[in-house]
Amino acid sequence: MRIDYQSILQQVAIFGQSSINKGKVADYIPELAKVELNHFGIAVDTLQGENFSVGDVNTKFSIQSISKVFSLTLAVSVLGEELWKRVGVEPSGNPFNSLVQLEFEKGIPRNPFINAGALVIADVIVSNFNDPKKEVLNFIRTLAGDTSIDFNLAVVASESEHGFNNRALVNFMKGFGNIHNDVETVLDLYFHVCSVEMTCKQLAKAFLLFANHGVLPVNSQQILTSGQAKRLNAIMLTCGFYDEAGEFAYRVGLPGKSGVGGGIAAFLPGELSVVTWSPGLNKFGNSVAGIHVLEMFTTLTNRSIF
Ligand code: GLN
């Protein structure tokens, strides 16, 4: 049965609008606190090359932790299985910036999507590339097919100035020998990559890679093997929403990744990517309107991985 995605997006956007004011913008990074609550956008790209969208889909926002998927993809593509000696694949059940498990697990983060895990991935990238910031940025530009994508240096400075928790994480892991480079170099890469700004439309295009099992749909370039893509997709399902990953799987039924800029990028393997943006967050750091709308999206299309 052919699905009328545009009409479904129009219907779900009404739920998005109704939830816009229910969350709070992230204010622990002061530059992000300047963003108005009053935004909502949703974009869908299909593997057949169709695009559908409603709302603020051309406004750039800080992708924040959605970037962790891109960094992980790059790290897996260069390091392969070796990577999993330094970071686990279990949901943490703890907030994204939590320190507590690191002591018991000897500096090996639970998964690559909590901050500790993403800092290890940043360390891997620093070890493997001469110009790591440029490498990750170019990688994101390639996936999205858009060279205008860039860092937001005001967000980098703001996060670095207030990045006490991330500094603690990276130093603590260095004490266990799981950070191989200078901690400030690793943090600088991490803050830059989190600051990347993209629109819903650009993210939807970039996430088609995961819907397409690791192959870039535009030119059939294989970025990940199908085995690697399976693993990445599984980690997005189990860890992409921190201590709300179970709830997201239960309500939405798609793998994906959120960021404290209010974006959520999700996908249905073999079919489509779907990206929402609304900056109001719940207590887990996930977009309130985004989760509500994605739940309605999978309900109305009657499509999920389950
Ligand atoms: N840059 C943010 C941080 O390190 C990313 C967090 C997020 O989006 N969940 O705290």
UniProtKB/TrEMBL annotation:
Record bears the keyword Cytoplasm: no
User: Do the record's keywords include Acetylation?
Assistant: yes
Q: Biological process GO annotation list?
A: glutamate biosynthetic process; L-glutamine catabolic process
Annotated residues that bind substrate are located at S65, N115, E159, N166, Y190, Y242, V260
GO MF, any single term? glutaminase activity
Q: So what does this thing catalyse?
A: L-glutamine + H2O = L-glutamate + NH4(+)
> Record's NCBIfam families?
Gln_ase, PRK00971.1-1, PRK00971.1-2
The name this protein carries in UniProt is Glutaminase
